[in-house]
Design goal:
about 70 residues, mainly alpha
Length: about 70
């Protein structure tokens, strides 16, 4: 089956204004930084939450991402 120019249609790619994307990008960045803090630094002197609950909860993730913890 041969395709001809009559079968082709122009496709308009929608543009997303930066003003609509930027708040979501900042929100996602903050969530990512919070997750990295809890996985990488939530223990010892920098701990915000007392006890070892958070450390044990993210323990396997620490090793998977290469953070040493013991």
């Amino acid at each position: 089956m041969a395709y001809t120019a009559a079968n082709q249609t122009d496709v308009a790619i929608p543009t997303i204004p930066l003003g609509e994307v930027l708040p979501w990008a900042v929100f996602g960045g903050l969530l990512l930084m919070l997750a990295i803090y809890f996985v990488g630094a939530e223990q010892g002197a920098t701990s915000l939450i007392s006890g070892t609950y958070v450390h044990e909860f993210v323990h396997d993730g620490r090793h998977l991402l290469g953070f040493p913890c013991h």
